[in-house]
């Protein structure tokens, strides 16, 4: 826990509340609209961002027990994440060494002792080792130790399991996180339970992500769901490419309370985005909705899993209340954010406007696009240097 970092941010928000201001970016930032729909550019983004950087793909809490696993497809790569008897979380390409079938169906969360491919029954343990070959005598001589699952770089941080899709990636997770994990630890995901998950189809991944760092739209687009009084003046705090969004509005309570009494519940509120595809909304008091967003099969498609995390176990949830809340959040994001996003991308593709604009009050969105541009332009060998240096 890094209470001091949370206190510093809350202190800044209280100051801004009292001075009726927010911290502004230096200038309006213009994004060429072609970058949202050009197919070659989109391919480069998927390859150089989604396949090269660590992505938070699973929660520690859903793979707490040895034998638990999660299988999902990410940017065209079938991924299998496991927890073995030694307590380690590992990630693999979900691909049999015989002739390539998935070794477990996806998407799926479950528990098992081994993964038995359902094509010809080659069997792997939770550490990815090939442990049995069906009719081995007649298959021919084979050194099983050379035919395990292909392991992917992975690490467990802040109650999440991060996986890099390229087996030979040279990206160091700590360089990528740039200290963000020390504040994400404060969200206490380790102590939370995943009590619900639901899928949503969305527009282009950047159009979708723009919405997650954007408070400007909240009382307008979400006037009928969240109401007309939502915060729309945000402040942004960044660690490398990752950004927390919060607003002075809502800090009235802290302004009237001594700092020593500020609670985690109030200090963790807001939206915590994880580059390039995650948004965490909520607090240690209410629990969280964690959105994992992935590119789809074409520039105009994305796919989101909304994960609902709470601090009481699933059996203590009121199923009706939980369903109502999940339906509500599915509606807000699906019928308001993504519905609008589909309009945005259709209009951007006309080429009628050369640029999209990000105002001085949209610094988090500005930083997102600067990182996307820098990553697309950076060769593998120069990636560690970019992560160390950052973008301005
Ligand atoms: S493809 Fe898996 S056993 Fe043949
Ligand atoms: Fe929204």
Q: Secondary-structure blueprint of this entry?
A:
Elements: H1 3-18, E1 29-32, H2 34-37, H3 39-50, E2 55-59, E3 68-74, E4 77-83, E5 89-93, E6 108-111, E7 114-116, E8 123-125, E9 130-132, H4 136-139, E10 151-152, E11 154-157, E12 160-163, H5 173-177, H6 180-184, E13 193-202, H7 205-212, H8 218-221, E14 235-239, E15 242-246, H9 252-255, H10 264-267, E16 271-274, E17 278-283, E18 287-295, E19 302-310, H11 319-348, E20 355-358, H12 363-376, H13 383-389
Antiparallel strand pairs: 1-20, 2-12, 3-4, 3-6, 4-5, 5-10, 7-8, 8-9, 11-12, 13-19, 14-15, 15-16, 16-17, 17-18, 18-19
Structural write-up:
The model has no long low-confidence stretch (mean pLDDT 96). It is built from 13 helices and 20 strands. By secondary structure, the protein is of the alpha+beta class. It is 30% helix and 26% strand. The radius of gyration is 22 Å and the shape is globular. The protein starts with a helix and ends with a helix. The strands form 5 sheets. A 7-stranded antiparallel sheet has the order 13-19-18-17-16-15-14. It has 2 domains: 3-53 and 178-389, Naphthalene 1,2-dioxygenase Alpha Subunit, Chain A, domain 1 (Alpha-Beta Complex), CATH 3.90.380.10; 55-163, Rieske [2Fe-2S] iron-sulphur domain (Rieske Iron-sulfur Protein). The structure holds FE2/S2 (inorganic) cluster and fe (ii) ion (FE2). FE2/S2 (inorganic) cluster is lined by residues 96, 98-101, 117, 119-122.
């Amino acid at each position: 826990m890094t209470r001091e970092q949370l206190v510093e941010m809350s202190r800044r928000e209280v100051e801004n509340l009292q001075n009726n201001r927010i911290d502004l970016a230096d200038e309006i930032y213009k994004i060429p609209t072609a970058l949202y729909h050009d197919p070659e550019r989109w391919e480069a983004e998927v390859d150089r961002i989604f396949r090269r950087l660590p992505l938070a793909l699973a929660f520690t809490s859903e793979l707490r027990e040895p034998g638990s696993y999660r299988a999902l497809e990410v940017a065209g790569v079938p991924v299998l994440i496991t927890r073995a008897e030694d307590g380690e979380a590992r990630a693999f390409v979900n691909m049999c060494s015989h002739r390539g079938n998935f070794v477990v169906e996806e998407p799926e969360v479950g528990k098992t002792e081994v993964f038995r491919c359902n094509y010809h029954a080659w069997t792997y343990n939770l550490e990815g080792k090939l442990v049995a070959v069906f009719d081995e005598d007649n298959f021919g001589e084979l050194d099983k130790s050379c035919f395990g699952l292909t392991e992917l770089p992975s690490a467990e941080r802040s109650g999440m399991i991060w996986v890099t899709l390229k087996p030979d990636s040279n990206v160091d997770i700590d360089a990528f996180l740039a200290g963000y994990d020390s504040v994400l630890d404060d969200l206490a995901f380790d102590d939370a339970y995943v009590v619900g998950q639901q899928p949503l189809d969305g527009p282009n991944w950047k159009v979708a992500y723009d919405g997650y760092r954007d408070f400007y739209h909240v009382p307008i687009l979400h006037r009928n769901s969240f109401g007309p009084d939502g915060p729309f003046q945000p402040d942004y705090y960044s660690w490398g490419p990752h950004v927390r969004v919060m607003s002075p509005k809502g800090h009235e309570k802290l302004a009237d309370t001594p700092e020593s009494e500020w609670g985690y519940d109030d200090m963790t509120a807001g939206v915590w985005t994880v580059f390039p595809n995650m948004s965490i909304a909520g607090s240690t008091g209410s629990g969280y909705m964690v959105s994992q967003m992935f590119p789809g099969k074409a520039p105009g498609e994305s796919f989101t899993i909304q994960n609902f995390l709470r601090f009481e176990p699933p059996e203590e949830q009121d199923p009706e209340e939980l369903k109502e809340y999940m339906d509500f959040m599915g509606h807000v994001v699906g019928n308001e954010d993504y519905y609008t996003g589909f309009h945005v991308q259709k209009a951007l593709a006309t080429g009628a406007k050369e640029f999209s604009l990000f105002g001085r009050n949209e610094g988090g969105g500005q930083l997102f696009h600067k990182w996307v541009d820098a990553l697309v332009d950076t060769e593998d060998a120069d990636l560690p240097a970019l992560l160390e240096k950052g973008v301005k």
